[in-house]
């Protein structure tokens, strides 16, 4: 279940009045403190639908949910923007989450990376979805063997991949490496759109560092963690 809701389409008007109520379920107090309402993950965007059902983007805006009080209705009068800048606080926009498993296999002598699934990806296509796939890059300097990618999942913001990739590498060399994970929206005939990414490794911070460290410390144990994708 994606966290995108939409109103019905109103025809032939520049002054639409919807009077519709859209309900988001499963929003926690923590979400209310942190999340802004925005296009893609949590957003308000206005689109023009043509007779073939294609959506042309008109404009978007975001509302800080922490401005809202419980059980109190609030009206906003907000201008739409074509492109939304990053929050003034400088924090990086979230583009969804990815579930990754790591295991160093002593038997196979290498790192096994599992790309399990993503949730709440940002929508990159006019139909309100994306066609996501994931790229892996173990860096630095491993040449062609450093890169892997998953299959493409069509028209979804919550793709399930369940794919595993193997890196032939000595355990002692892993501490010097970073694993670059990026999620892309596949587009036929033009360049793919970047949805978001994260980098695991010793130079990472927080959960990304912890996950890498746990993998190094616990050989032959599969460790799964969710990571936030960022539009960096």
Structure description:
The chain has 232 residues and is mainly β. It folds into 2 domains: 85 residues, Sandwich (Immunoglobulin-like), CATH 2.60.40.150; 134 residues, C2 domain (Immunoglobulin-like, Sandwich). The strands form 4 sheets. It has a 4-stranded antiparallel β-sheet. A hairpin with a 4-residue loop joins strand 5 and strand 6. It is elongated, with a radius of gyration of 20 Å. It starts with 28 loop residues before the first helix and ends with a strand. The relative contact order is 0.17. About 3% of the residues have low confidence. It comes from Pomatostomus ruficeps. InterPro entries: C2_dom, C2_domain_sf, Rabphilin/DOC2/Noc2, Synaptotagmin. This is RP3A protein. One of its GO terms (molecular function) is metal ion binding. Keywords: Metal-binding, Repeat.
Main structural class: mainly beta
CATH topology of the largest domain: Immunoglobulin-like
Helix content: under 10%
Q: Quick one: CATH superfamily of the largest domain?
A: C2 domain
Strand order, biggest sheet?
9-6-5-12
Q: Radius of gyration from the CA trace? A: 20 Å
CATH class wording of the largest domain = Mainly Beta
Strand content: 35-45%
Question: What are the secondary-structure elements, in order, as H or E?
Answer: HEEEEEEEEEHEEHE
Largest sheet: 4 strands, antiparallel
List the uncertain runs.
84-91
Distance between the termini: 26 Å
Named at the architecture level, the CATH assignment of the largest domain is Sandwich
What do the pLDDT scores average to? 83
Number of helices: 3
Counting DSSP E segments of at least 2 residues, the number of strands comes to: 12
Count of domain modules: 2
Q: Outline, from the CA principal axes?
A: elongated
């Amino acid at each position: 279940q994606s966290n995108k809701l939409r109103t019905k389409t109103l025809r032939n008007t520049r002054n639409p009045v919807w009077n519709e109520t859209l309900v988001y379920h499963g929003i926690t107090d923590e979400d209310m403190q942190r999340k802004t309402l925005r296009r893609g993950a949590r957003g308000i965007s206005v689109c023009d639908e043509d007779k073939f059902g294609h959506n042309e983007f008109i404009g978007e805006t975001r509302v800080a949910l922490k401005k809202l009080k419980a059980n109190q209705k609030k009206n906003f009068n907000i201008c739409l923007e074509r492109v939304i800048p990053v929050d003034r606080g400088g924090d990086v926009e979230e583009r969804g989450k990815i579930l990754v498993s790591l295991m160093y296999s002593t038997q196979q002598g290498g790192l096994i990376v599992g790309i399990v699934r993503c949730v709440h990806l940002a929508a990159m296509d006019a139909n309100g979805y994306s066609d996501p796939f994931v790229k892996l890059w173990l860096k630095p300097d491993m040449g062609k063997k450093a890169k892997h990618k998953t299959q493409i999942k069509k028209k979804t913001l919550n793709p399930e991949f369940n794919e595993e990739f193997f890196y032939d590498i000595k355990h002692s060399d892993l501490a010097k490496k970073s694993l670059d994970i990026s999620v892309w929206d596949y587009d036929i005939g033009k360049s793919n759109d970047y949805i978001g990414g994260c980098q695991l490794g010793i130079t990472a911070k927080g959960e990304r560092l912890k996950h890498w460290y746990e993998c190094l410390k616990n050989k032959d144990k599969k460790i799964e963690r969710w990571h936030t994708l960022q539009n960096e």
